[in-house]
Specification:
Number of strands: 0
Distance between the termini: 31 Å
Radius of gyration: 17 Å
Order of helices and strands: HHHHHHHH
């Protein structure tokens, strides 16, 4: 447990730095508002914390023994993120107030993203290999998962607030279209980098 402080710093950096989830939270908050985005924040953070716990309890060791499955998950994640990027880039460029019928990423989608997000898995493997150690118990892994959850929620919420602040500048349709394309490109970049690092 002496590793909790270094792990807390690691969890903060892992949660606050740009990645597919952060970019989707930013984009959804800018388009649909903070209240509509907070359920995505909680479901994404909860799913990531659950992955930390499952990796610690043995799923990580099993997955490491199946590199083909790891590769398939990485490419599946990349394909799904490309699809989401396409949807974002082609979202209506209407002013935000008029954009009530646009497709939204729901809490289940945000949680499911963590299953195919290479950044989440790399973070979970780091918990097991760097911080918890071989002698850690289920209580220890549960503690790491809880600490990650408590740190990741405010970090992703900050991205949601950033998106909400950006919404003030997106009243014009042309700005909204440029924002959508920029978010889509960032999502593609983060997805490709995640798969590249996973390899």
């Amino acid at each position: 447990m002496k590793q909790l402080l270094p792990f807390a710093l690691f969890a903060f950096v892992a949660s606050i730095t740009p990645g597919p989830t952060n970019i989707l939270i930013l984009s959804n908050s800018a388009r649909f508002g903070l209240a509509a985005t907070l359920p995505l924040v909680f479901s994404a953070c909860g799913a990531a914390a659950l992955i930390v716990l499952l990796v610690g309890l043995g799923a990580g060791e099993w997955l490491l023994g199946h590199p083909q499955l790891q590769q398939a998950m990485a490419w599946l994640g990349l394909a799904w993120l490309m699809y989401l990027a396409w949807q974002i880039a082609n979202s209506p460029a209407d002013p935000i107030e008029a954009d009530t019928d646009a497709k939204r990423l729901g809490p289940a989608g945000a949680a499911g993203l963590q299953l195919v997000n290479p950044k989440t898995w790399m973070m979970a493997f780091a918990v097991v290999s760097l911080f918890a150690g071989a002698g850690s118990t289920s209580i220890g892994y549960g503690t790491y998962a809880l600490v990650f959850l408590l740190i990741s929620i405010p970090c992703l919420s900050a991205w949601a607030l950033l998106g909400r602040g950006a919404a003030r500048f997106l009243r014009a349709g042309s700005r909204m279209k440029a924002f959508n394309v920029a978010m889509a490109l960032l999502l593609v970049l983060s997805a490709v980098m995640g798969v590249w690092k996973a390899d």
